[in-house]
Structures are given as structure tokens and as C-alpha cells.
Amino acid sequence: MRTPDAIPLDFDAVIVGAGFAGLYMLHRARELGMRARVFEAGAGIGGTWYWNRYPGARCDIESLEYSYQFSEELQQEWEWTERYASQPEILRYIEHVAERFDLLRDIQLETRVLTAHFRDSDNSWTVETDHETVTARYCIMATGCLSSSHTPAIEGAESFQGKTFHTGRWPHEGVDFSGMRVGVIGTGSSGVQSIPMIAKQADDLTVFQRTATYSVPAHNGPLDPEYQREVKTRYAALRAANSHTHLGFGSEYPASDDLSADATPEQRETRYQQRWQRGGLHFMGAYLDLMLDRDANEIAAEFVRAKIRAAVKDPTTAELLSPRQVLGCKRLCVDTGYYETFNRDNVHLVDVSSNPIERFTERGIVVDGNEYELDAVVFATGFDAMTGALNRIDIRGIDGLALREKWAAGPRTYLGLGSKGFPNFFIITGPGSPSVLANMVPAIEQHVDWIAECLSHMQSNQLTRIEVDQAAEDDWVDQVNALADTTLYPSCNSWYLGANVPGKPRVFMPYLSYPIYVAKCDEVAANDYEGFELS
Ligand code: FAD
Ligand code: N01
User: Fold this and answer.
1) Is 59 near ligand 2, meaning CB less than 6 Å away?
2) Which of 197, 264, 311, 350 could form a disulfide with 339 if both were Cys (CB 3.0 to 4.6 A apart)?
């Protein structure tokens, strides 16, 4: 009889997800000579950029920086057309990468991973999909931080006779809202991007707002070919400079080290105006202490509120659109004509902060006893972020330990890369890594490169098992929390804290500071994978 040890494994690595992370992981695994298979639930590759096809969807980190850097030829040859690339262009780019590096033959689409169980006897994973069961030495989760869409449970939703959509699961054929009365629930980044577009098409648009949002103009437009050419003469240097910035992007227009408190009101006003004119997330780089000092933050917040008052004609609407929470505590939005959209006669704002949406009826939505009749409702209600996609899979480690049980009070990882009790298991941009508080493409590449180097080290040393150390994990979780507690991030109900999903534990999930994190990962690797047990 064959012992489990003698059973050949189907793959060296199973990779779950075919977005930016899964594709690059596959490429690196192939370079190591590994047999790898990617399972992707969608019918196409691209992850975020496959699913989020809502009108107005685009990146908020500039295209030249929100892209892969692992191949110099790729980054030289690919031409971006806009400062912030649209969803179709980013998807075309990802498809080009897959073709260029011949990735598709190892990607299995329309295949959802349901369970992943570790087998102690031979240090392998048994991965069950909705089609088959396979075994592999390593199980690598490239399941995405923002891939598990969240639709709030609202009474009567099933009785609504109109159409419903979620921004994160947009129909491929697009949606024509012409002639319709449309409701949008949610004013985060997806709402901010889609609302101006839907307003132009729909007969009538009602926006149901629970929390007003801060948004900075994108000033998007065609990318100057001369600028693109010039950047490409020093692309590697730009990427290197970005890797030393707090968020992994923006070295062209660096964040300031100045403190708001040291500046005069006139100096602050000038600086905020300059950053507002420049547009985009650079606004948060105006002063070093914006996320550290409430007074500093409030001055910047008031600057944005003044912009809202200037943009929106009706003072009552302007007041309702003016956020009160800490600026940047929820992800800052980047828009094209968002606030101005509320000047349109066909757009109405309904405040659901103190009077939540009561219920759906057959005809529409009821708030505070008033029924809003609608032909279509768009849920721009976001995601069960960072842990959602992982917790939807039945992941079991040593002795059947379930990851979702281990994480019941919040995710626990070492470096966001692995979790104690789950050997040979890696997460790309997992909770506890900078992930969503960094430019995600370089953050993904950094994680994939680290994992690939680690796998290479294991190959060269004939090792078959790597597992997180308990003490290292405990210490890391403490560090992630302690760092967050020195900032204003935990002060509001953001998805960074899981606060958007009822019942989810309130734990700050990303690690703040990309360069410190990268240095720590490098140090861990240089010290023989300190904090991991290899055997
Ligand atoms: P994803 O692209 O989310 O891919 C994960 C894939 O895993 C998905 O295709 C999913 O179907 C698949 N999957 C999950 N579970 C399973 C399973 N059980 N079985 C099989 N397959 C599974 N970040 C930035 O840094 N800058 C931006 O400008 C930016 N813009 C964004 C705009 C939008 C609309 C959204 C939603 C996010 C944005 N992000 C941005 C974050 C974005 O998610 C990342 O930048 C990046 O695309 C994530 O890539 P990924 O491969 O890690 O995950
Ligand atoms: O989701 P969100 P998102 N009743 O969670 C509201 C990235 N991204 O899809 O704030 C009424 O931010 C909710 O209200 P509140 C980016 O990282 C980037 O917009 O919880 N309202 C909120 O207004 C982003 O941060 C881009 O009070 C309800 C909204 O729904 C992340 O993805 C574009 C509600 C959800 O906002 C998520 O963005 C898109 C209810 N019951 C996404 N439930 C770029 O621009 C929820 N809401 C690059």
C-alpha cells in the first residue's frame, strides 16, 4: 500500500485568483521551474479590473505608476493613454501581460476554490474546487483585498421589481440607464466615480448617502506622450524612488515632511491649493501630520469643505455633502465632477445617516417613511475587505484548524504573508501588510518576489515545509495595531477596520508604511527567514 508520502502531488503550487497578484505569482513560479495552476472564479482574468466595469471605473494612482515593473521591456513598450487609466484599458493591459508571458495555459477560469486543507503527513495542500480536487505543496492566495463584494441586507430587497446592480459585479454588456429613475446606495470611491456618469444618462438619479465623502479632483486627461517618453528614460529610477515613499507612489510630487502646525494659515492655504490643482491622492501629502494630528487634519478637512461649498449651489445640499469624519480616515476619493453633479436638476441627495434605508418595496426604497420610486438600484456598497475572500474558502491547517475560526476576532498573520498553523500557505497582500494602504501593484510585486525568493531558498535547501512562528506572529499583530493607534485611522468606521460589514471584528488590517515594511521583509529573508520555521 502506498503511504501518503509516496503519492505524487498534482502541482508544486496552487494559486487562487488571476488578478495582478495571481498572474505575477504564476510567472515567478514558472521561472522557478514549478508546476503551478491558477484557479480563478471569474470567466476572465484581471480580478478587480475584470469585475468592476461600472461607468467611470478607473485607477486613482497614475497609470505610469499603477502598473508592473518586473519587466523593463513591458514597461517600456506599453503606452498608457490617460493620466488615470480606465477599467477597459487596465484590463487590456493585464490581458496583454498574460499573453506576452504565455500565462493563460496554466490558468483555469470559471473555477472557484471551495476548500483548501493541509495534510500534515506530506506537507501538502488538498484544494477542492467546484470542478475537481487537486494536491499541491504550496497554496498561495491571490484572492484580492477587494474582491468579495458586500451588499447590505435591507428588508424587502427581494420584492423590488426594478433592476439591481453591484459596482463590483457589473454586467459585461454594460447598463443603459437612459429613461430610468436610478438609485445609488453608497458614496465611497465606486459611488464617487459612477454617480457623475449615471447622472448624465439616467432620467433621474437619487443618491442615498450614509457618510459624506472627501474627494479631490482627478484632473484626468490624455497622458502627454512627451511626458510618457521622458518618464520611460528613467523608469527604473522612478520606481526605485517610489519604493521609498510612504505609500509606494508619488515620488514625482513627493509628500512633504513639514508639519501643519509650523505653517501660517496663508502658507497652508497656498499649499492645499497647489495640491488641489495638482489633483489626486497627492493632497494627503501636504503635511506630514495630517493623519497624526486632529487639528492639522481638521484644517485640511475644512479646506475641502470650502471647495464643496464653492462647487455645490444649494447650501443645504452642500452641507449634507460635507464630511465630518477625519479626512483620509476612509480612503480619500478622487473624482471627475462629483460634487458638481449635485447641481443637476435630475440629481437628488437623500441623507440616510440618521434615518437608515428602511426597506425596499416593489417600486423602490423607503427612507423616513418616504418611498422613492426607482427603476434600478446600484449598490456601490463596497467589499468585505481583506479577509472576505479568504474567509469564504474553508481553509484548514494543522489538525483541521479553520482559518476563519482562528481569525474570528480579527486576522492574525506574520507580515501579512502567512499565519501560524497553516504551513506552506502564503497570502499575497494579506492583512498585516501595507496592501490597500500602498500602491497595490508594486506591493503585490514585492510580496510575490519575496515568496518566490523564499520558495527558491526552499528548493535549493531541499526543504518542504515553512510555517510561521507563534511568537513572531503575536509580535507582528501587536506592531500592526500599535502603529495604527499612533494615527487617526482608527477614528472612523472604515473598511480598513472591517466596520462596514455588520458583525466583523473591528481590527485595523493594513500595515502602515510601505518602506519600513519592505525593509522588515528583506531583513527577515536575510536572517534565514527569521520568524518562520523551515524544515
Ligand atoms: P484581485 O484583482 O481582486 O483578484 C483576485 C481574484 O481572485 C479575483 O478575480 C477573484 O475572482 C479571485 N478569487 C477570489 N476568491 C476565489 C476563489 N475562492 N476561487 C477562485 N478565485 C477566487 N489599488 C491601487 O493601488 N490603485 C488603484 O488605483 C486602485 N483602484 C481600484 C479600483 C477599484 C474599482 C477597486 C475595486 C480596487 C482598486 N484598487 C486599487 C485595489 C485593487 O484591488 C488592487 O490594486 C489590485 O487590482 C488587486 O489585485 P489582486 O490580484 O491582488 O486581487
Ligand atoms: O466601497 P466603500 P467602494 N446604507 O466601502 C455605503 C477601492 N476603489 O466600492 O461610509 C447606506 O468605500 C457606505 O457608507 P458608510 C478603494 O480602495 C478604488 O466605494 O459605511 N449606505 C459607503 O458610502 C475603495 O476605498 C477606486 O457609512 C451604505 C459605500 O456604501 C475601495 O475600493 C474606485 C450601506 C461603500 O463605500 C472600496 O470602495 C472604487 C447601507 N446599508 C473602489 N452599506 C478608485 O477610485 C454601505 N453603504 C481607484
Assistant:
1) yes
2) 311
| pLDDT, tens only, 496-522 | 999 999 999 999 999 999 999 999 999
List the domain boundaries for the chain: 11-148+384-468+508-530, 157-379
Q: How far is the CA of 52 from the centre of ligand 2 (A)?
A: 13
Quick one: what percent of the chain has pLDDT higher than 90?
99
59 lines ligand 1 (CB under 6 A): yes
Distance 47 CA to ligand 1 centre (A): 5
Q: Per residue in 217-244, pLDDT tens?
A: 999 999 999 999 999 999 999 999 999 9
Give the residue whose CA is nearest to atom 35 of ligand 2: 381
User: Which of 135, 142, 122, 143 shows the shortest CA–CA distance to 12?
Assistant: 135
Mean residue pLDDT across the chain = 97
Q: What is the per-residue pLDDT across 304-342, written as a single tens digit (0 to 9) for each?
A: 999 999 999 999 999 999 999 999 999 999 999 999 999
Whole-angstrom distance, CA of residue 289 vs CA of residue 294:
9
Closest CA to 493 of 325, 297, 354: 325
Ligand of minimum distance to the alpha carbon of 112: 1
Distance 345 CA to ligand 2 centre (A): 25
Please tell me the distance between residue 147's alpha carbon and the centre of ligand 1 in angstroms: 5
Closest CA to 426 of 447, 442, 408, 405: 447
Dist. CA 431 → ligand 2 center (Å) = 19
Pairing of strands 364-367, 357-360: antiparallel
Domain 11-148+384-468+508-530 has CATH 3.50.50.60: yes
How far is CA 196 from each of CA 3, 84, 328, rounded to the nearest angstrom? 62, 17, 22
This model's pTM is above 0.85: yes
User: Is a pLDDT exceeding 60 seen at residue 260?
Assistant: yes
| Amino acid at site 363 | R
Confirm or reject: Cβ of 60 under 6 Å from ligand 1: yes
The predicted structure's pLDDT at residue 124: 98
Q: How many CB atoms lie within 10 A of CB 151?
A: 15
Split at pLDDT 50, 70, 90, the class of 7 is low
Does pLDDT of 535 surpass 90?
yes
- Whose Cα sits closest to atom 11 in ligand 2? 210
> How close is the Cα of 167 to the center of ligand 2, in Å?
10
pLDDT one-digit tens code per residue, 52-94:
999 999 999 999 999 999 999 999 999 999 999 999 999 999 9
Give the three-class secondary structure for 215.
Answer: strand
